[in-house]
Amino acid sequence: MRRDACKNAVRRSLLHWYDRHHRVLPWRVSPGDRARKASRNQKNSCSVNAYHVLVSEAMLQQTQVATVRAYFVRFMEAFPTVEVLAAADEQRVLRLWQGLGYYRRARHLHAAARIIVQQHGGRVPDTVQQLLALPGVGRYSAGAIASIAYQQPVPILDGNVARVLSRLFGIRQPIDATATKNQLWQRAGELVSPTRPGDFNQALMDLGSTLCTPRQPRCADCPLHKLCATRSDELPIKTRRTTPKPVTHTILALRRRGRYLFEQRSPRGLWSNMWQLTTAEQLIDDPVNWIKERFGLSVRAPRTLESFIHHTTHRTIRFELLTVAVQRGSTNGQTQWRTLDDLDDLPLPNPQRKAIKALLATDKEVEPQRRRERGGRQ
């Protein structure tokens, strides 16, 4: 495929396809709506809300569109403007993000909102250079916001776009190699439409999500079928990833009079500042003494409830969930005793939510027995 001869054909074919087959998403303005709004107000030809694009791009990092839809709607209901988000408490932001994972994205988005209000008068910056200065905004996100919200003719490159371009141009070098990434960024920059850059970039993303999929691409339905150098799933080529490190964490569900002990995680590291049942990032050989040394609590021998696996980017974590009845003792102000139906204000990592679900099921089964035992002692 010759660059100069075919790039206009790629733009024309892809935009024509996008006009007919674009995905309808809550953060997106369709091409027809944009044209109508622009014709009514020439001074403000861009009808896309840049704040919506900023939030959606933060959510879409390493997360499927189908998952993000509902989260985006709830987030916008809670934080309809960048000013509202900037003024919000971080714990509430994390609570609304709960379940999406990769919580650093939420903290970066929150910090970016404060910078936008303090340094840019509440207006999301419109240049790649200014956008890159915001926390959590990388080259891809900056290009997406600048092109979609402000019609800047700048490229984007995410996993979907890289796959489309590697097949379109027949690139057989490992797609995750630095030299290949640079080549793909260059190709994306040459292809981006100078008149409809936002639509063109979204068209590339939609094409990779719906037709040019990792396995069994629907090449016969692809608008670039006749221009493509590959027409199969043999590309892209990736270097072999490092196997995630296996580790074990122990969740100690400390229970006293129907309430469980919750603690806030450190402001650094995985799931920072979120809340959890007492959790040790190791396998605990002697839980009774471990709890005594850490909290000063006297407890009965723990009971193993279940174990489950949680995957992160670099680790495969096996969680061992133990229930522990507290006999006596008190804890400091850094912890809270909560019933399992009173956690709506606490942001909880996904593994903790899974543990709580198991505890709820167990409590539902054993509570009648506890009541019978209490009745027998009276």
Set out the fold topology:
Blueprint: H1 3-21, H2 31-40, H3 50-60, H4 65-78, H5 82-87, H6 90-97, H7 104-120, H8 128-132, H9 139-150, H10 159-169, H11 178-191, H12 197-210, E1 245-256, E2 259-264, E3 275-280, H13 287-295, E4 298-299, E5 303-311, E6 315-328, E7 335-338, H14 350-377
Parallel strand pairs: 1-6
Antiparallel strand pairs: 1-2, 1-3, 2-3, 2-7, 4-6, 5-6
* Count of discrete domains: 3
Number of strands: 7
Low-confidence stretches: 38-46
List the secondary-structure elements in sequence, H or E.
Answer: HHHHHHHHHHHHEEEHEEEEH
- How far apart are the termini? 86 Å
Radius of gyration: 26 Å
Question: Please, what is the CATH homologous superfamily of the largest domain?
Answer: Nucleoside Triphosphate Pyrophosphohydrolase
CATH class of the largest domain: Alpha Beta
Report the β-strand fraction as a percent range: 5-15%
Mean pLDDT: 91
Question: Percentage of helical residues?
Answer: 40-55%
Please name the CATH topology of the largest domain.
Nucleoside Triphosphate Pyrophosphohydrolase
Q: How many individual helices? A: 14
Structure notes:
The chain is of the alpha+beta class and 378 residues long. The chain has three domains: 111 residues, Endonuclease Iii, domain 2; 104 residues, Endonuclease III, domain 1 (Orthogonal Bundle), CATH 1.10.340.30; 133 residues, Nucleoside Triphosphate Pyrophosphohydrolase. The chain is 47% helix and 14% strand. The protein is built from 14 helices and seven strands. Strands 1, 2, 3, 4, 5, 6 and 7 form a seven-stranded mixed beta sheet that branches. It is elongated. 34% of the residues are buried. About 2% of the residues have low confidence.
